[in-house]
């Protein structure tokens, strides 16, 4: 067998304005180039402590069990669902987006019985429907998506939903993958028992170490299970020995990714979490004003608009794949098409983390207008740019 002849790695320089990943801050990239140490080295233990403290701040929680799971956001998702779901448990999941369906698949693999509370794609769950579902199904767990990446919709009434679940003695799991670090999220104040996220969206960190937080009530359920968690790797009763006081060996942590997450979270703390929420709202608001002034619409209503992920409805007759390809080939900008019920109807445009900056928003609006005009869509690009500049104060 001949030796492979592979050239140097030379990925293109993209402007990442899709549903994730977002642009990585230069400080985070520098952190990833620092020397490796062992995953039980005393200096790395200090790094682990820092990451846990910084994650508590980002989640707005005092939860002791706040860790980065070694893996992508789907790993923290599966850790949450797989550890809390025991065989025979009924789990209420949302039917208003793509990631509710993924929750249901994970519940089934964990031996549970998923049941849906329905809402149209792009709309939030109605508390009345959630209450009715609890009465009908009597679930042990309730999972919802705080920021639905597939539809650009935010769940606006979280404390009301968690109160319903707790009144029925159920635990609450929140998907905060597209909200942590970019959209208001208050885990303790809102009564969320378990929340998971991904680092590559509003935290602007490469995937590989994914945030997860659990309160004492949730950990008590995990530690008193009748059967072992089906995944050894993601078993939180074992992981707590590594991330808890013992720091006992469980697996080799992704050291470089933990470095990166620490630096990304330092940036969150330096900016201030509420300032960061406001920056995302302001940058995405300028994007929203621009596309609407062009003559386009966002998929969700204003009351549940998700600043970090904007689902822009395409004009009739416009091919989403052609727009995506034009933006990538002509401008080096990455956006994405719709998923599930919205496939072919929307573009998903991220405004997250380090990507949520004035120059990026202006560039995106101009390029989007050009891409749509190339398909003979009746859009007013100049009006869009004027609206965006006004909101940005330019």
UniProtKB/TrEMBL annotation:
Gene3D superfamilies: Aspartate Aminotransferase, domain 1, Type I PLP-dependent aspartate aminotransferase-like (Major domain). InterPro entries: Aminotrans_V_dom, PyrdxlP-dep_Trfase, PyrdxlP-dep_Trfase_major, PyrdxlP-dep_Trfase_small, SP_NH2Trfase/AEP_transaminase. Residues 37-338 form the Aminotransferase class V domain. Pfam families: Aminotran_5. GO terms for molecular function: transaminase activity. It comes from the Archaea. Residues 1-21 are annotated as: Disordered. Its cofactor is pyridoxal 5'-phosphate. Keywords: Aminotransferase, Pyridoxal phosphate, Transferase. Coiled coil: none annotated. Belongs to the class-V pyridoxal-phosphate-dependent aminotransferase family. This is Pyridoxal-phosphate-dependent aminotransferase family protein. It comes from Halorientalis brevis. The lineage of its organism: Archaea, Methanobacteriati, Methanobacteriota, Stenosarchaea group, Halobacteria.
């Amino acid at each position: 067998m001949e030796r492979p002849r592979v050239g140097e790695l030379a990925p293109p320089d993209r402007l990442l304005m899709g549903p994730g990943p977002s642009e990585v801050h230069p400080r985070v990239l520098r952190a990833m180039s620092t020397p490796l140490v062992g995953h039980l080295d005393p200096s790395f233990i200090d790094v682990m402590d820092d990451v846990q403290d910084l994650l508590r701040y980002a989640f707005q929680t005092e939860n002791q069990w706040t860790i980065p799971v070694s893996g992508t956001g789907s790993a923290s998702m599966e850790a949450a669902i797989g550890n809390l779901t025991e065989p025979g448990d009924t789990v209420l999941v949302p039917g208003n987006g793509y990631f509710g369906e993924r929750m249901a698949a994970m519940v089934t693999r964990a031996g549970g019985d998923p049941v849906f509370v329905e809402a149209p794609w792009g709309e939030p769950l109605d508390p009345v429907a959630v209450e009715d579902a609890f009465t009908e199904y009597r679930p042990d767990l309730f999972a919802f998506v705080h920021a639905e990446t597939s539809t650009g919709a935010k769940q606006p009434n979280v404390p009301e939903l968690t109160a319903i679940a707790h009144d029925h003695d159920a635990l609450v799991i929140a998907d905060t993958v597209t909200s942590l670090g970019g959209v208001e999220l208050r885990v303790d104040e809102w009564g969320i028992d378990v929340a998971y996220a991904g680092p590559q969206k509003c935290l602007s960190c490469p995937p590989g170490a994914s945030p997860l937080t659990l309160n004492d009530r949730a950990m008590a359920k995990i530690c008193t299970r009748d059967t072992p968690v089906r995944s050894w790797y993601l078993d939180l009763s074992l992981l707590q020995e590594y991330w808890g006081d013992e720091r006992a060996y469980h697996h080799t942590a992704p050291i470089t990714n933990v470095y990166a997450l620490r630096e990304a979270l330092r940036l969150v703390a330096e900016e201030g979490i509420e300032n960061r929420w406001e920056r995302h709202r302001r940058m995405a608001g300028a994007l929203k004003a621009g596309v609407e002034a062009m003559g386009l619409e966002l998929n969700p209503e204003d009351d549940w608009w998700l600043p970090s992920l904007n689902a822009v409805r395409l004009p009739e007759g416009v091919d989403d794949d052609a727009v995506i390809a034009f933006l990538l080939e002509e401008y080096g900008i990455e956006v994405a098409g719709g998923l599930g019920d919205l496939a072919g109807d929307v573009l998903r445009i991220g405004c997250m983390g380090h990507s949520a900056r004035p120059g990026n928003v202006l560039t995106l609006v101009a390029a989007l207008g050009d891409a749509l005009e190339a398909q003979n869509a009746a859009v007013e690009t100049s009006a869009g740019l004027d609206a965006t500049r006004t909101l940005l104060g330019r």
